Protein 1
Amino acid sequence: MALGDGPLIVQSDKTVLLEVAHPDAPKARAALAPFAELERAPEHIHTYRITPLALWNARAAGFDAEQAVDALERYSRFPVPQSLLVDVAETMARYGRLKLVKHPAHGLILEADDAAILTEVRRSKKIQPLIAKPIDDLTVPVHPSARGQIKQELTKLGWPVEDLAGYVDGESHPIALNHDGWQLRDYQSYAAESFWEGGSGVVVLPCGAGKTIVGAASMAQAQTTTLILVTNTVAGRQWRDELLRRTTLTPEEIGEYSGERKEIRPVTIATYQVVTRKTKGEYRALELFDSRDWGLIIYDEVHLLPAPVFRMAADLQSRRRLGLTATLVREDGREDDVFSLIGPKRYDAPWKELEMAGYIATAECVEVRTTLTDEERLTYATAETRERYRLAACSAGKLKVVDKLLAQHAGQQTLIIGAYVDQLEKIAQRIDAPRIDGKTTTKKREQAFQAFRDGETSTLVVSKVANFSIDLPEAAVAIQVSGTFGSRQEEAQRLGRLLRPKTDGAEAVFYTVVSRDTLDAEYAMHRQRFLAEQGYAYRLVDAADL
């Protein structure tokens, strides 16, 4: 590509601007994705940032500095600043200068390829308690129980360690895929292979693209006892049903470890809540980790992983770990913890590519803007900052929008999603539809979801309990009335409820109803960032024009 006509503008502050309308924009986006993170994505120019973590993730995935430099130079409109190219190469070179390896006499050791690096990290107060007296200038023993913690601390120090200490095989258990009327899709088998080659790490797939099947394929490859950590009991039961359908496992081989049951079997599905619960100051669930010689641990929705689970049971580092998620963004900014403790990103499937291949439904995103009444504006203007968002998110104008949208999509399977229970209560009463929130029992939830799947009810009002791991294949319309502040992953998950391919091949529509000139509109912009990165554009509509 000749200089002067590429779609990228690369700047020395590590930002990269992408011109969306350029004919080569899709290729440039695909070339950037492994090593740059999207920051802003309005209509015409998207802003990416090259961060150390993104570069190390790329490096762990087998992507080297030459490829990154080549991508930038090939698609850049102007000469790429030399300082940035040097910085990319040097940052990527930091990955793997320190290695964790097994040693016959010392157990676990940290190896450096340069004595100065080892001396630098040994001086860190956070590292000192984790290591013993050096063997020589380049090697130092590490306490086996500190394998996870030392990886975490070294990433923070800017020396991400390559973990080559291997994995225990765990207790063997025969598991095979049951190909009864279905086959693994090409990207699913590639994701499972990429994970297996790396031994641990994260697979990023859109909702509806079959993350559970990637988990099942990895289990069939491992042939070992498996612990699966999920967000809630309903998600756990969906995992169980899917494993029974897709593999040779029998109901007796799969246990549920939740608030209701405490079964430990060759394949055990536990919820994060139970695992992180403290009783009399102790994590009781640790017995779960120690009860079996697990060969594989699967973390569903890994971006939600509670911080205590990270630190829990230090020997988990010697087990193979598979993280599954639709988006690696964490709103607490702890993506580096996922990187160091679960592992680097092994596979990432762009949403739009899967859509083009027909694996997920096409979706249209529409932002409907409403205006506050004079009375609401006055209340909003005088309210405390904390209260403002709730006032804007729950404005009365949104109820009329919901009515109009339901009338437009009469007869289609519709989800109404929100964050405030009182708002959802009003809507459910108004349209006479079942409501599911945090207080709804697991049994009632399952019944309501089943009635929706069977087409007995066409509308469901759901709180954020439906953000994750809920399988509603025929849902074709979602109306989002309020969200959790500016959460990007929530937006992605909510759209994900619609992405299962429909039997009639219909397009899904995702509406987000926003109060203009308020915090609600501000947060909506933030929420939409991740989806914009995946190539979804929001069409703006005024509520009056519906």
Protein 2
Amino acid sequence: MESFQWLKDLFTTTDSVAHIVLLYAIVIAIGVYLGKIKVFGISLGVTFVLFAGIVAGHIGFTAPTPILTFAQDFGLILFVFMIGMQVGPGFFESFGTAGIKLNGLAASAILLNILVMFGCYYIFFDTSDVRNLPMMVGTLYGAVTNTPGLGAANEALTTVFPNGAPQIASAYACAYPLGVLGIIGATILIRYACKVKLEKEEERLKAMEESNANKKPYKMHLEVTNKYLEGKTLLQVHDFLNRDFVVSRLVHDGELCIPNRDTVFHLGDQMLIVCAEADQEAIMAFIGPKLDIDFEQQDQPLVSKRILITNPSINGKTLASMHFSSVHGVNVTRVTRHGMDLFASAGLPLQVGDKIMVVGPEDAVDRVADKMGNSVRRLNAPNIATIFVGIFLGLIFGSLPFAIPGMPVPVKLGLAGGPLIIAILIGRYGYKIHLVTYTTTSANMMLREIGLVLFLASVGIKAGANFFETVVQGDGLLYVLTGFLITVIPILIVGPIARMKFRFNYFTIAGMIAGTYTDPPALAYANSICSKEAPALGYSTVYPLSMFLRIFTAQIIVLFFCG
């Protein structure tokens, strides 16, 4: 047996680096693998790491508390910061006409979650016990399946309970599984309560898509027949129409050329125009009829090329400021961002990672490609400096004390709120201070998941020692019941309102609910019953604000009511 003493020491010497790394490796690996198991098509995903950590903590497989606390806090910071970077570019743009209504409904659901939590607290629990409300906060965030909120509440509790905060992860773990089921179940219940026919909803979506003159690029070949245009420059025509369009090629007297702002129009000229789909009829009515030809198929000295923007100096510059036509002799006809084609309007700011379609002489196009960077290898290189500059600023911002009258201690945004807000601002406006904010989707997901599993494993291990006592001898079943109420009641209120009052498509509502609860399994269910992008659109519209409110309100509840 002496020959295996090294193995025993590896598992029992809790303060050794090898033991600590082994602990996290085992807990995270087991949790991730178990999280992939589906029951009725639903899995708990990476959150199973929390349960694996609880089991490890319960059997005494643990590490020194300072180490666990460091890994927990660092994981939380990394997780929320990468979330902020992800949602930042679309955070302020999500408040469009329909976006305001959807975000208003999402905010209402979040408020109702909190109100139901307080209702359950006063009905079912002893309010004289100061530890019951924090445990209900843990139940709340398990019920809404929001791990960042749990982290924010956990971090804020250390301020309120400096001598030892309640292990709210136990309540979170009790409420989480039924929370996942409750979100999907309530979404299905709305379908039957509102007498929704999925086939008709699909047809409505198809009809809306066909009637929607959106901003996707539209190409057409036109002949100049309007006598007014004789002798007018492209700039004059553009200003008069007051619509964004690009003339990428023009044929005059049989010669093909690249027009610029000073190009003069003549009767009989033929041109290739790229414009927003909504503007095609107005432009055609003003210039002239469509032609059944294709300049791109004719022999000519021009080329079309997609160029990848990887030069950091281009970040944030508008198309107009680049002077592609007047200086470089080329035209940009469309911009592709995150797989979406955008119309190349003059005021569109370019971002690292965009692909632009450039038309012009081959040598001019090549010069533009060099200027833009056009290096996939450069794009794949991580901009790690931006991440740590943002974390540095986020920690400083989160540590700033805000004195509020009536509060026993100044309010701080903390390790979750500070980095989140700074990350959102950097993701949206970082280019203005020359910060390259582009991160590949895979890199962002990897850093997020590493941060998340470190946080979940640490919280689970710390909570494991008292978890089973909490569930079996304490209020575990009550946490499950109240968590289910917190999950379901707001959905059954907000969902019908979204359907009956605001007339939203059922698939959009399902996506909105999934985004409000930041719950990927619910989104997966919504996607499984719809062939269109409506669920994903609803999800992405409310997700940024919902994530922010979940994290922010967690700290507000703890600091205002748990003191």
Protein 3
Amino acid sequence: MNENFESLFEKSQYSENIKKGLVIQANVIEITSDHAVLNAGLKSEALVNLDQFKNLEGLIEIEVGDTVDVVIEDIEDGEGNTKLSRQKAKNEITWSKIIQALDDNSIISGLIKTRVKGGFTVLIDQINAFLPGSLVDIRPVRDTEYLEGTLSEFKIIKADRKTNNIVVSRKAAIQGDNTQSKSELLEKIKEGDIVDGIVKNLTDYGAFIDLGGIDGLLHITDISWKKVKHPSQFLTIAKSVKVKILGIDKENLRVSLGLKQLEKDPWEKIIKNYTTGMKIHCNVTNITDYGLFVEIEQGMEGLVHVSEIDWRNNNPNPQKIAKIGDEIEVMILEIDNEKRRVSLGIKQCQVNPWQEFAEKHSINEKISGTIKSITDFGIFVELEGKIDGLIHISDLSWEDENEIKLSNYKKGEGIETQILSIEPLRQRISLGVKQLLDDPFAKFCSINPEKSIVKGTVDEVKENHALIMINDEIKGLLNISEVSMEKVQDIRKIIKPGETVEAKIIGFDKKNRIVKLSIKAKEAMEEKEAIKSYGLEETESIAKTSLGDLLKSKIMKK
């Protein structure tokens, strides 16, 4: 039937016969992340969703250069675009097979999908058919769960294209005229035998092989040790093929076959010839969003995950790294015998710039770089080796983070920094700018230890505390409990913004870079010193007399 479509297309190209609904052939010229670009020789190329090219296992079954059958949905949609449908073409081809099987009373293969009311849904290629419960088997079957998800053969009982109504019978296929000959053949063969067969039919999930009276299923996973997108990559209808008997179900007259089992398992070569840390050259066989597949041995692939491609970028675009067929150097990172999986890396074949940086530089070292990007939380600086270091906003200045103006820094400008930490395994380098200058808070603390008396200007007053600007860089905190010897209900009634106050340092909040102040402690200290300065020797008088009285007495003596 495909030949007829192709012939029709060649004879009618650019003619009036090219019309909607026609099945033609198109070439796959490009595959993107979500579309296939097809050229059918029409006015324009067409974009077709990749979902239309997936098999029953959800794998993309086309490559660039393939020729596929498509249906013309629209030659020109008004915007100059050609619309093609792969799904409709599949449906057309499958419907032709179904009608032919109905006319010939022949066998057709399908996948028993799910149980529904009264029977099962059967998937014939991409078209749903109905399998009545009474037509499942020769004998009544109570437990039918084992059938779900299995491949089987059917005869078409009814096929109505207008209503999309297809009814199939598994029972009729099992009861075929050659049931007896099938049973006789099954008695002659055994598991492990290598037999000759003829490829009878190809499906998305495998191939049916005529063993001379009975069909065996060669599942797609048993065709090759390589990843198989479609059986047509390795098999051709009507061609002879040698296969190995993997399993025999005499009760249901089914035979499971294998083709790859005729060859030595390439995994044995992997275990024997390859070790972790080994560098090898391989050809790229497939490219996905999550990495590159390369062929290590014939029939055996390994994966280079995106995170193992570039030291400087943990999520590069694999499409920009290599093309299918390219030879690349990789390092074997892991050989998982249980999962039969080999993990590979590209970046491990190159010098690790993070490790190289760690070997050349040390903590507290001054280093220059170029501002690469500016974020809300800091500045990324490009260093030697084209790796990035981060200046967190808290390490830009000794000032409060809220007062730091990132707008003062420009992308592309050079900047002098100090290395705060180097973590090559985490690919992190922390940098600082403020560390190049003396810490004004630390300097203030060293000059003004606890119990020192300082002056400042009231900056902000709240109900229970006030902020005092000791100088342009140092702030002091005066809590309500430290304002006076007497109890204060509202500090706002005692002091006002802009006033100058004198207080004693009673501590330091180094985390928040705040000096703790007390007027009360200053007054207590002054009172004590005043008592000493007036030479009041009689302790009993001192104990019983107020400071005011003592001062008054001293003045009168003069």
Protein 4
Amino acid sequence: MTEAANRTETFTRKPRVAYFSMEIAMENDIPTYSGGLGVLAGDTLRAAADIGVPMVAVTLVSRAGYFRQEIDPQGRQIEHADDWDPARYATRLQATVALDLEDRQVWVGGWLYVLSSRANGGTPVLLLDTDLPVNDPRDRDITDFLYGGDEAYRMKQEVVLGVGGIAMLQALGFNLMGYHMNEGHSAFLTLALLRRFAYPSEDLRPGESPYDLPRVRELCTFTTHTPVEAGHDKFDYTLVRRIYGDLLDLGTVKLLAGEDKLNMTRLALNLSDYVNGVAKRHAEVSRKMFPGYAVHAVTNGVHASTWTSLPVAVAYDQHVPGWCHEPELLSRADRIPNDTLWAAHQESKQALVDKVRNLTGGVLNPDLPILGFARRMTAYKRADLLFTDLARLKAIAREHPFQIVMAGKAHPKDDAGKQLIEALHAHMRELAGEIPMTFLPDYDMELALLMVSGSDLWLNTPLRPLEASGTSGMKAAFNGVPQLSVLDGWWVEGCLEGVTGWAVGEDSPTANGHDAIALYDKLEKVILPLWYDDRPGWINVMKGAISKNAAYFNSHRMMRRYATEAYLR
């Protein structure tokens, strides 16, 4: 038996939940993720391994990665290929499966990667790959580019992910007790399941559906992440017929996925018994977007050991033993002596200061507070809100000096996001000599950990209600870094004013226009004076972030919710 077969067989002996996601962050050096969705998927699978929930993940190999980001002297984003070799990290699967796309056969192979756990072995991840010599040259790159190409390319990817993933799991002998779609990209898997569970034609009465819809629904879980209608994938039926002509009869598909276009989210909603948003507020927004569907709320969480800096983890090990396996134990963070927690934070902060110097040549002062902001650079995230009134920002800094560290990538086709990055660099030049500011290029998991642990205050300023959840503030909480955020996403649940962090403005969609003033007021009158004048009071807020946010908003709690409510229902 080959090594691949041996490794695969160890994971096929017990029933598992198949978790489908277009992107999964497995390691920093494996560029199979673009941002929060992929990082969350990785944290989900790590938590599953930690607490013993049997899962197998399916994604694309994304050989060309997302992209490496360079920033030119004018502040413009330049994208570079970020190729990687799966053979360095994963084991080639022996099985291949065939799909019919555009009236020709496309073979799908793959790789096995194991997200390891110190407790329970690990979670297998199947990386589907069409770069096979047997394939037509037109098809060998289908699995190469994460979120790349045109609409036809995206649809081929989603057919490979959903339909090819189902076929590969079967070919490898996995015994599956359910299927979890992380966003709508993999919803074609429901059509593959309907074909599998079709009734024999001789058992049907006139007018009856040939497909066992209740059986498929019973098997499927769907997590939606997008509170904006435009963010849900839709495909013209002419394109659908051209690419995937052998799908179910068109009448059935239109009933399930929409009359005008094939809506991947509608397809997943109609064929899943358990549907959830990723925060309580997001579930409310989703129920309004998709009336008639029961949308539960399972608020996101982050993986404890992955997102805690080493100095802080050492302090936890000493004063809250077992936190890594039971993050809820961090509710006892008040046990940590103030000096110990502050020293751990300062060590994490120095690591960020050193990284800034090495990457950009910028010099930050570890004795001054650092405001951190890092996430996908797109308009609704409002990375530029802090710079609405530069005169007032400078006036605040003269009274209480502070520094700013920012990072984030804009999608290559998001011109507004790219312009936002340019605008941030223009602000940096305008603030030079008064407020130290730096923008770290090529934001990835390594930079994220340095920033969420080395900043003193974490900023999040999206337009309400467009932040489904957001998890960077949760990562900051694991490092005792309080958050200043708009009340949207998970922060509606996590914010205890002055205890875990602070809110920007009111909890109302109409408050967006007043957020800049509210942000400045909170910095000037509350946050910076506390940091400078009341160090024990500041450390109390750090401990509040740990004990009340990190102890709850972690992937172990999230995974237990999925296991008990979705998988074992």
